[in-house]
Amino acid sequence: MERSATTLLMPDGVRLAADVHRPAHGAGRAPLLLLHGTLVSRLDYRSFAPLLAAAWGGDVVVPDRRGRDASLPQPANHSLLTEADDLDAMVAATGAAAVVGHSYGGTVTLLAAGRNPGAWTWATYDAALNPAGVLAAMWRPELRERLDAGDLDTTWALLVGGLRTAGPVSRLPGRVLARLGHVLAGHPGAGARMYAALPGSVRELESVLELVAQPGNQRASARLDSAAADASAQGDSAQPGPATGSRGAAGLHAASGSEGTSPGDNAPAPGAAFEAPAEEPFPLPERGLMLNGALSPSYFRDATRFAVAAHPGLEHGLVPWGMHNAVMLPAPVLARRIARWCLEHPAVPPALPVPTTVVP
Asked: Is 244 inside any structural domain?
């Protein structure tokens, strides 16, 4: 296996750093793009990407998205739409035949695939969606307030404790999380990279909430407004408390269930009937693979069930042992599963309309 460094040129002249993982015995296939999630960068996928490249039989390109640090900030007009524009440019620059998106990278993948049907095959792992504004009730305004005040320790604690994507660590009391984040930030490696990506990561979360709350999506907008008003009325301290499901607990808190539960813990079991809400966060693609970790926060599975209920052509798979970071670990079985699905379901461009002959 060979790993090399490259850059991908975006239409605005920005160059995004990327790792290229090339298998020792490739099958000459077009590249596969692996798009990272929030709080992480391309460097965090160096255990999984080589396994995916071997299973795919071609190069796996793992680019950095914008906002990983101050040297490459997000644009002033950053949104999920600008992220999808970047993904379109990445596909064009690499000639990729497949895209695999993780977490927020999965959200970007879904948006780009939905507006480019049949351009490339795709799979997601724990894509972060906000159908009908269900995540709006988890939003806490002090997350943005603490970030703007330069309090990165509290911001990190609010984000990690609220999203619950760090497994048992996410359930530590907020003050303990803040101290842990401060220690991690002082060492080179993943901790320092997470802190560098905090401003961009908060903006990414805001972009998921914003896209569903557009004019014409009144119910989602009302939920977002109601959640913000309710949070403001609570008058909670910005200092993180215990990372439970209660309203003063974290920047994102459990929107359903009893105190101490994570978002979506009361959701239907996998395979149960799931009623799709009236609105989608954006036009979803009709065909693809959406995977979830069985040990990931259940709101990821809830969102996937919503998408599959509305679009029967989507396939939902559960990874029995998978935590949210499974695609950042040396997981050969998962790599083979993703690659096999993409190989067995190549992109199928939409059929062109058949011209009709008008008889005079």
From this structure: no
